[in-house]
Every structure is written in C-alpha cells, then in structure tokens.
C-alpha cells in the first residue's frame, strides 16, 4: 500500500458527536486573465468565504441558505473535502483536510461522505442500479452485495420499477432520486445535498426529505436549498451573505 493510501485510515469513532467542523475558515480565489499575447496574468482576488466557524453534529439535519453568490456551494465543497480552505481549518471525521494529499482526501470522501450534486453526475451508459452501485466498486464490494444494496436504496426512494433504466430514460426528478440513492450507498457519516428538491414535485420532494430526516438520526445531513419548504424541515439553518455566516436559527 502506498504512503498516500495510508494517510487516512478509516477508524472514525461513529459514536462521537461532531462529524465536521470549520474553524475561522476563509476561501479566496484568484481570477486569471489572458493578455493579448496569450499569457496568463493574475487578476483580482475574490473572497468566497470569510472567517466561517461552525460544527455539524451527528443526528443533525442542517440547512444552508443564502442568495446566489453568497458562498453556499463553496462551503459545501469545503465540508465535503472537495476543496481546501485558504486559511483556517476544516476537520472532517477527525482529519484536517489541508494536511493530507488529494488522494487521501478522495479516500476520506469515499469512506465517510455522500454527495448529491445539483447536476446529478450520472453516467448515461449505466442503469440506475449500476450508477448507484459505483461507489461500492471503489470500495471493493462484491457484485452480488452491490446489486442488493443499490436495489434496496432505489426502492427506498421510490424507484423500484426503474432499476434497469438509464438516465436518459428517466425524468429529471427520477434522476435526482438516483443521485440521492447513490449518495447513501456507502452509508456515509456525512450526507451533503445541493438543491436536493430542485427538480422534484412537491410529493416526491417530501418523500426525499422524509428519507433525509430518517437517516439524520445517526449521521450528519447538510442541505443547501432555495426551497423554503426544504429549509423548514431542517433542525438548524445557517444563513450566508457575501461569504459570511450572517445568521443561525434553530427549529
């Protein structure tokens, strides 16, 4: 096993309370531009997040809201270990994500994080069941177990009759539910969802939120949404404005 592979051992104590924590986190991006000769020059620096401190506990369903450009997506990427902060620390299941390699962070996500992307990111050539089972292949799970687990989750999100359908044969809402099932397939400690009800009708959205509430009983669930109904179903709401934590409310 390589040194990168051993940087993060999957020994997180699942009984502990805090799953992910931000301490004085800021994230800045430098915009680049091309000169008329085709050379790249550094442009202005943009602050996407500034001095964010928070902790997400096991058993919580936390909502994040704010206008476009407020930093919601940047915060989700940091919580999931998809990005690292410019300053401050993000501690995900006992690991400061800035101290490990990109390969180790990938393994950290695979072992502990489920993500529902706003754009779904389903592979068009694979069936719904095969899309859901993909993370289990990376974990070395056998084919029979993968199929059984993926089938159970698709039934759980109301797609038991769409198991063999490919994404192109599914509606936007059905693709969203496949993405939710895939995020849950590894039984993650942290589930992150970006606009999880955005493509769903009211009834299906309620069904997905019911699933989130159920699984939040023993893990942390974070969702960013413009949907007031979805935000109202959360235990706690973090409101962002211009990259700063403007307000926090509890149910």
Automatic annotation (TrEMBL):
**UniProt KW Nucleotide-binding keyword:** yes
A Gene Ontology molecular function term for this protein is:
ATP binding
Q: Does the keyword ATP-binding apply?
A: yes
Q: Which InterPro entries match?
A: AAA+_ATPase, ABC_transporter-like_ATP-bd, ABC_transporter-like_CS, ABC_transpr_LolD-like, MacB-like_ATP-bd, P-loop_NTPase
- What single Pfam family name could you report for this chain, choosing any that match? ABC_tran
Single GO cellular component term: membrane protein complex
Q: What is this protein called?
A: ABC transporter ATP-binding protein
Q: Which family does it belong to?
A: Belongs to the ABC transporter superfamily.
Instruction: Tell me the keywords, alphabetical order.
Output: ATP-binding, Nucleotide-binding, Transport
Source organism superkingdom: Archaea
Residue ranges of domain ABC transporter in the record: 20-251
């Amino acid at each position: 096993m390589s040194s990168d592979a051993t940087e993060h051992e999957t020994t997180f104590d699942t009984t502990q309370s805090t799953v992910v924590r931000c301490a004085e986190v800021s994230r800045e991006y430098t915009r680049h531009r091309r000169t008329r000769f085709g050379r790249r020059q550094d442009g202005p620096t943009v602050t996407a997040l500034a001095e964010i401190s928070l902790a997400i506990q096991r058993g919580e369903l936390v909502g994040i809201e704010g206008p476009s450009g407020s930093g919601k997506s940047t915060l989700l990427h940091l919580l999931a270990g998809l990005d690292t902060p410019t300053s401050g620390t993000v501690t995900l299941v006992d690991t400061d994500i800035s101290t490990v390699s990109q390969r180790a962070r990938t393994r950290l996500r695979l072992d502990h994080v489920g993500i529902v992307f706003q754009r779904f990111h389903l592979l068009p050539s694979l069936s719904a069941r095969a899309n859901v089972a993909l993370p289990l292949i990376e974990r070395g799970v056998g084919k029979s177990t993968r199929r059984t687990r993926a089938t159970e989750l698709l039934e759980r999100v109301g797609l038991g009759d769409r198991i063999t359908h490919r994404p192109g044969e599914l509606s936007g809402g059905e693709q969203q539910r496949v993405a939710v099932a895939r995020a849950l397939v590894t039984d993650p400690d942290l589930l992150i969802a970006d606009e999880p009800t955005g493509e769903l009708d009211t009834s299906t959205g309620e069904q997905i939120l019911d699933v989130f509430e159920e699984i939040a009983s023993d893990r942390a669930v974070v969702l960013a949404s413009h949907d007031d109904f979805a935000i109202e179903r959360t235990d706690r709401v973090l409101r962002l404005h211009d990259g700063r934590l403007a307000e926090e409310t509890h149910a």
